[in-house]
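Reopening this ticket.

The earlier resolution said the output was attached, but the attachment link was broken on my side. Pasting everything inline this time so it's all in one place.
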Amino acid sequence: MNASEARPAIAAQTATGVPGVPVAPGKGGMRRLMPMLALANTAMYMVYMGTGAVLLPVQIELVDPANKVADFGLIAGIAAVFATLFNPLTGLLSDRSGRRNPWILGGGLAALGALALLGAAGTLLLVAIGWCLVQATMNVYQAALTAVVPDRVPVERRGLASAMVGIGTPIGVALGIYVATLFVPGDVPLGYLVLGAVIAGAALVFTVVVREQGAPAREPLPLLRQLAAFGDTFKSADFRWVFTGRFLMMLGFFSVSLFQLYILQDHIALPEGLSPTEAVAFIAPIDAGVTLLATVLGGLLSDRLGRRKPLVAISCALCGIAMLVPVIKPDWTGMLIFTVLAGLAFGSYMAVDTALVTLVLPSATDAARDLGVLNMANAGPQIIAPFLAALLVGAVGYDGLYVVAALITLLGAASVIPIRTVR
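Inline output:
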């Protein structure tokens, strides 16, 4: 609900009936919420992948072509620290405020400004500062958006909601990469501005369409007690295993995906006349279509079966197998096969694991805080992955990178086995 609208006060409840956080009331609210989840997440991944996979590596290569791999690894790793810090902290603050929409809107508008600054950067130092600001502002947006599902969606519809969230990943990745390639190499600053306008517009539309009944703001806690609350989250054994699985899956996935442009430049034998940038743009819609299909089917199937763990494990294992394809076939055909298998695996994983996550949260009234902690399993690997990938490429080449990434994702598959409270 907008602050200016006067309506009778009612007790805000989570989808499970626990007081203290906002919820979208009634079927009408759910009908508005589902497509908006897809839209908001699509915009988010457009920014993450359009900038992180295309514009940022191209910008770094233009500034320092001889050291592009090491430079990219260092800048991406430093910036991911900001993502790791801002996500749980914003989650905690939005929990305390009893609102999500102001944080979504503020993060989206601030991201536009950060992307404009990044586009104007002409040195590696300024690029690093700009990318850190983008990661910080985008994680303000993401932390509040992620908490919307456990806030407002009943447990029996979490699979569908997770599918709507998951749909945003392939569509956002494909659109973000396609849009970004339109501005390479000469109009990189304009590309940043366009993607910034996308995230700011999505934040505005979401907060206008999806109104919220804010919960009463909580009494502020001392800083040390707030920081200690993050540690309390890990007292749940099931949460620890879900965190571990997400961390391993993302570490393996990002170790490869963050370097896709450089892999196509330096490792894969492309058909004559196909540039690496064109190859990225060609792969993106294929990946999007396959991932989208797997996301929808995975989310609906997990609801129908009432099972989450087996589908998560299978998805991680399939991703690990896919990583080995470019080792066996380091050519264009191998990359296409890898794209299809990895898309199937990642789409199914994100839909089902997102539903699994919402079922093991330690505190219903601190959903954004707990999800912010869990999102460290998304951002943390982005700190480690660039350093790990740069080290592996320098030591054992891209084949070694794929093999290590495969082993990591297979360990992620095994990590769901000890989870007890969810089937």
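Reporter confirms the inline version is readable. The domain at 26-217+234-414 is CATH 1.20.1250.20 (Growth Hormone; Chain: A;). The mean pLDDT is 80.
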